Amino acid sequence: MGKNVTQKIIDSHLVSGEAVSGKEVNIRIDQTLTQDATGTMAYLQFEAMGVPKVRTKLSVSYVDHNTLQYGGFENADDHRFLQTLASKYGIYFSKPGNGICHQVHLERFGVPGQTLLGSDSHTPTSGGIGMIAIGAGGLDVAVAMGGGAFSLNYPKVTLVKLKGKLKPWVSAKDVILELLRRMTVKGGVGKVIEYGGDGVKHLSVPERATITNMGAELGATTSVFPSDDVTKEFLKAQGRAKDWSEINADADAKYDEVIDIDLAKLEPMIAKPHSPDAVCKVSEIEGMKVDQVCVGSCTNSSYRDMMIISDVFKKGKFKVHPELSMTVSPGSKQVLDMLSLNKGLSNMIEAGARILESACGPCIGNGQSPPSAGVSLRTFNRNFEGRSGTKDGKVFLCSPETAAAAAIYGVVTDPRKLGKYPKIKMPVKFLVDDSMVVPPAKDPSKVTVVRGPNIQPLPKQSALGDGLKGKLLIKLGDNITTDHITPAGTWLKYRSNVPKYSESVFSAIDAKFHEKAKAAGGGFVVGGENYGQGSSREHAALCPMYLGVKAIIAKSFARIHKDNLVNFGILPLTFENPADYDAVSDGDELELANLKNGLAGGAALVLKDVTKGKEFNLKHGYSQRQVDTLLAGGTLNYTTAKGK
Ligand code: MIC
Ligand code: SF4
Questions:
Q1: Are both 172 and 194 inside the same structural domain?
Q2: Which ligand has the nearest atom to the CA of 362?
Q3: Range of 542's domain?
């Protein structure tokens, strides 16, 4: 039987397990990437494994999240730690300013047909180039760097069949927003979203990458495009023709689900606050006053996206509206360099746009937070409440075209009103200058890893006993994001300092949570559907673990977060009957007895609400590996014990 693109790549990397959807398999990882905000922990974990040099084909350590922190040594210390560590262990180091990890990886390192594991949830961006690129917690990436396989549930594969061609002023972002509208933020769980159909050939690699990037918001394992002539041209233009190989689905390939999208019928779309799936047509909210516009992020910061903005402003045709603040963050040094050479940058500067560094910036709440109750239109991928740094800020997600229209008129405007659509040609040759990528040392013995005071040791977890007891510390609703659990923004500088960062846990919901949790000696957390959606940051498990959280009981979990909880020895459990969620209350005394038997499947896993005098059945769905990991108190304990 024929195979689809997903199966071809996963199956050729299978180390163990059966290729049956839903079953756990282990795959070999060719490449890894980390970014600074998750990287410091990942490398501390890698160091703890005692491996002298990475065992991947390629590993890259990027600095893009926390590049320009206000006042203090923490960032610079982190960067120095990351750079010296990379040099010592055979890892390429992409300096701050070289660009956003996903954009740079697509341009300079991604190879069709290979697997990539990244400690950032938008790692699937490289699916645009025909890779199986998966986001994971730093610990999983550390294991992969050490040559270990990556465990995942063999996915279901959804074919998104693209037909025809996009109309002027409608672009790749509108495709993924339409998909989010149809599938919701949970619609992709357990699936790889594979793109096919005759519409694929009309999309350039960066456009494909916009789509695969935001597949993360569907909750998908990853998203992938075939590797075809368009991919070949892109790699050739990057001076990497030798990295190309063709990967197409076989004619008789099977899919678990097929979704049709007629590109020609799509209109400009926009996601309303506070969820990437709250999507409507731009025309439905036209006229709403906009306070700021931000262009950039790993979703929409390619040369093509920047040139759209530049062209709209060309020759002083339009200016940024006087009551609005517009920022532009080109995705990489390559993009910025090319814009500065072809004067694309001066069109933007002349129009009044503020040019920011090639980094994540406002996307992660690092600067340009909206004014109080202000409206911000962003070409980014996440608009979770408070993520921008302004609690009552209203963030909308849209294409660069829609962002440009709003920047000019100061109100939400259908970009089709802007007149003639700029024709942006993909460069035949990109400007290639990798001087901000530092290769690893030839002689690692000469390199000393430098650790400033912000680099704190990893906290430890003890092995699981047979029972857990404690208070229900906090009861939460549906779609709790990792930004709720461990916020970024001004807290980012403490990513290497778990004791300090733990003070941020649930701070937007209950500022005293960390004190309460500590005073109670830890306890339980209850959540609704899709608990832990969003980021891959393992701090969302590590910090609650530090505060003594023992188990999270929810209606359902987001994939990466669930894996992170297991990695750090916190039990992610679900209610057998979701209605039982309503029966428990904040402050209840909870008890989980006979755990070992329950986890082994020998007995029901029963949650006792001592306060209410009630009992509820729970489910776990762990693989044997996960049970063993939890019993050992997390992956580090488990792998160390296995190694003995
Ligand atoms: C994000 O977009 O939420 C981040 C910041 O890139 C995270 C990683 C992190 O929290 O450091 C992600 O997407 O995984
Ligand atoms: Fe950076 Fe934003 Fe992309 Fe996360 S989503 S990697 S913060 S640009």
A1: yes
A2: 2
A3: 468-643
